[in-house]
Sequence to fold (250 residues):
Amino acid sequence: MSDAHATPSAQDLRRLCRTSKTAALATIAAGHKQVDDGWPVTSMVVPAIDVDGTPILLISDLADHTRHIAADNRVSLLFSSPSTGQQDTIETDSARLTLFGRAIRDDAPSLRTCYLRAHPDAAQYADFADFGFYRIIVDAIYWVGGFGKQRRLPGTQFIEAGCHPLMTAHDDIVAHMNQDHLDALADITGHYTDHDPNAGWLMHTIDCDGMVLTGNQGDYAAIRIDFPGTIHTPGEAREILVKMCKISRA
Fold:
């Protein structure tokens, strides 16, 4: 969001979730050893965000929150903006988003693949018998960006519809860009970020709002580059990347 005082778009709000490293998960107690049933209980989780903005969790059956979900799958997730370290940017540093939804166990391979793209270290325990993947069916979201700044959206406006073609073609798009268009990724990186364009950037993931790149030269952390618009298909991905490349080379 270029103007910190502007009302954030759904794309902006999904971006907040995509860049949050952790989230607070609120569940409804059921059979908890310390509090009565119905008590609100919070815990920390590490979500991944799917191509369309859907949160995905990997949680253990041994955890209290998983037992709560089995009894009542209504949950809330609280995402916060990564701190910039600047004390005068309350609209940025204090921004947070509460997501209301229902946690559904989903063993589809696509969820596992998406989660491990974001958190490859989780492969060490993802296939343990007591772990499972859950997608959150989003009912509504509530964003607070600082004093007097808020926005509420239904889940149907937060989750981007029509992204199945992009999900299906994800790996082919990534492979194509990394095999044939590394120069374009370098130029885009040089124009849209302050990172060294010559770090051997590779596309790691792509979603409806942007892409994540990793450098294969030197000790570079992954970077996210957001698209100027929202995409849903491989054709739209090509169009927006070509457009960004042309702007980078102008």
Notes: The longest strand covers residues 131-146.
